[in-house]
Design a protein that fits this description.
heterotrimer; A mainly alpha (292); B mainly alpha (276); C alpha/beta (438); A: 292 residues; mainly alpha; 14 helices; 0% strand; C: 438 residues; alpha/beta; D-Maltodextrin-Binding Protein, domain 2; 2 domains; five-stranded mixed sheet; 16 helices; 13% strand
Amino acid sequence: MAEQASDLIQHRTISRPRNRFNVSKILLTLFFILLTIGFLFPLYWMVISSLRPDGRIFVDAFELFPSILSLDSYNNLFAQEPFGRWIINSIVQTAGFAITALILCTTGGYALAKFKFRGRNLLFVLILVSQMIPFHLLIVSLFLMVIQLGLVETYFGAIIPIAASPIGIFFVRQYMLSIDDEMLNAARVDGANEYQIFFSVVLPNARPAIATLFILFSLEYWNNLLWPLIVFRQAENMPLAVGISRLINQYRQSYDLVMAGSTLATIPIIILFLFLRRQVMEGLAATGTGLK
Amino acid sequence: MVVFLIFKVYPVILAVIMSFQNFQGVQSQEWVGLTNYQNVFNLVRFNQALANTTIYTIGTLLILIPLPLVLAVLLDSGRVVQSTVFRTLIFLPALTSLVVAGTVFRLILAEDGFLNLFLTSLFGVQPLRWLEVSDLALPSLILVATWRWTGINILYFNSGLVNISKDLYEAAVIDGASAFQMFWRITLPLLRPTTLFVVVLSIIGGYQVFVEPFILYTGGGGPGDGGLTMALLIYRTAFTSFNFGTAAAMGVILAAIIFVFSLIQFRYFGVFSKED
Amino acid sequence: MNKRISLLLLIAILLGSLGVSAVSAQDATDLSLWVFVDRHGLFMQNQAARWNEVNPDRPINLTYEQIDYTQMHDNLLASLLVGMGAPDLADIEISKFATFTKGDIQLIELDDAIEPYRGDIIETRLAPYVANGHNYGIDYHLGSFVMYYNTGILSAAGVDVDSIRTWDDYIEAGKKVTQDTNGDGTPDVYMASVETSGVMTARGIMLMMGGGAYDAEGNLILNSEANVKALQFVQDLVHVHGIARPTSGGEHHSPDHFLDLVEGRIASLWMPQWYMTRFPDNMSSQLAAVEVIRPMPIFEEGGYTTTMGGGTGTAITNQIDPSKIELAKEFLAFAKLTYEANVALWTDLGFDPMRVDVYDDPALLITMDDFSGEVPFEYIKAGLANVAPEYTGPYYPEIATIMQTTMMYELIENKKSPQEVLDAAIAELQAMGADVGG
């Protein structure tokens, strides 16, 4: 038992040669491999479906190891839809959204966690309540605001109204609570002003949270179907997810294009995720030494 | 904060106002007092939707809190080779387009689909008609939710785990604590802010669930409305029945329910203790 | 500024790519249109080009935006609610139409524009888009119900597809076709498939028996005798005659249902004409050699021969510039109701036209590889002798929802009686405030 426990804590500092680690490690790893296969199955199906010849998606639905592969769907996709524009729109809008949302949420969350002011709890509750009303109810009033403020067809309109994410503020607040007050006070004693503290002490310590949020915000926008459709009407301005969702309707069910488009749409966000995983790991190392 | 007030609080206030009106457009609205709230309780499907949504929320809480928590701790334990790779891969479902998720899960849940194939060959159970029987609608939805959200919750727990000081574990080992004891005495208590966050998020998400039934049943509530949720009913009432007042009243009731549950969580986890 | 330039550029590109002779911008009237199917927008743009050829003195510059089905209707409703942001013209799907004719109707009536064509078209097609006695929308197709048969399965069971003329013939044939081929005690091949979370199977039968949701006078007739009989008929196909099964996945667009068809587990189904495209698109033309189209079986001599399913009406919103109203109305009727337009409904969109005279046009009388090399329109036309009308009313969308979610499910899966499920539906509509009459 004690040995197991020491395994549990040793991994981040030094990997010491151990004798018994093999069995449990192999079993656990095997378990995770099986689990992951289960989780990835739908994605695998999406990829192989996108590679099937014209019209065979459902005919061959249960053929898991396709014998014939074809790029029909991809050729059709690029020939029939402004796919390049959708990708660029998605990347620009997603990045803009994620960065704006991060700025709003880190400052808001930090204020809620570390500053004692009147009505702090009330504000916090208010923020959460605003998340509890179903989005569809707000559509009519949001729609009115978007038109009145002239935000239709603008990137600004696509980003700002949804950037103040209550969940994001909540997440940052929870995270900031675990940052030691002593550290902030020490910085104050050293003569740092509040801005310096925020940028040089608070933010570096919140790196894992920031990386996590960045991924989640990117994801939220990348797959958001509702909001972009209220702001954008022109197919040329739409992000990917919206463009793809238009390919299935009562009269035309282009599942082949959907599978190809979705496969391509998943790749950039996977790359972003892999890239940021490293940031998270770095942040992890920083917190490991810096927070003692 | 200003942005927040304009784009979040103002629409919410409008929605609450709407719930007391017969809203037929910006030009025509009249005050009708509590009529909309009475209408809500008259709606035949309200109870069904409320019950469905509650069961769904409890179901997701029972699965989507413990499962990702345990997986996150295991992945963080150093006993898994290439844990980052697994964390990444399990997260991928959240990136999948909803149209694809809906299509794939219809094939997985089909009578001669992959899930039945798996269950029959492993446990010998009779094939179940997941997509066609009312009682199996909620389990199907919870399955889809588990697939989509496990990875994200692992991520949340992970970001909390890395913040726990290693010294505590070292001290515990010296005191002869077992792995289980450390999980129970150190990991869980110190993960409290993160856990609270995930729990509240799950309650809010669970009660507002819209996307899962919407994609799985292409816009409907599934067989016999067995997958009808509050958010779907609200959507239907507003955008199909053109009854925004009643829909808004339903939304306010739903928000109140979520609020009460969240408040209980806050009390339990002692969020407000610092100011009290 | 930038927005306008890019818009102009876009129009220019669109017009250019269509090979439309560019109309000088100053005298052309701009009309905007929202669609949820891209091909509808292209169709209307082609019609605008045709209009400009015929009416060079009053040119139209039509631009369209395609928005996802749900979102387009939601956005349109929201725009009409807030009194701004709506386009000049908009497509509204049949099951959503009544939502837009509730309360103060924010659409422009089309009666006088339709008048000149009234004698030429199958007039019952206008019925779904009528409110308070006025026309508010014009459809893109007739959407007549036809029977899709797999002749491979039929002839293996010794059934000649052309011997099926009445529903009694159909049931007799069904008993031969429905078979337990692998001997496990339950049939593996069924004559028909019945939707439990879709509306088309039941709606087709209800309308052909003279039932439906509303009558011509706008009375709710959901619990009428005709509907009870229709639901009894559908239920009996499954539970008494044993020749039909609940559709895999509940409705005829479920991927597992397409597999059932391809694997030869279902010998026939009745769906509107537009279901034809599913055979090449979703079934990879796997059934091309055996699939045929035939008219619907009839219940009685002289009774209805078919009915219509689905549809999308194009409407004009009240946010259009008043000076454009007359032009827009005239153009809309021109684009949907003229002979040439109806030929184009088939050639551009693949839909069955709304004018009977078009059915003899060479453009329609072509053989199709996907349907055993036959000429499907000969059979489609043969079914149009007596088309049962479909009327809609204020609670049409809710009725569709109830049928789709609980009514058919309770009827087929839980074997509830037709009277029971219809009464339950009426009670639910009453709770929503519907006037259910006596």
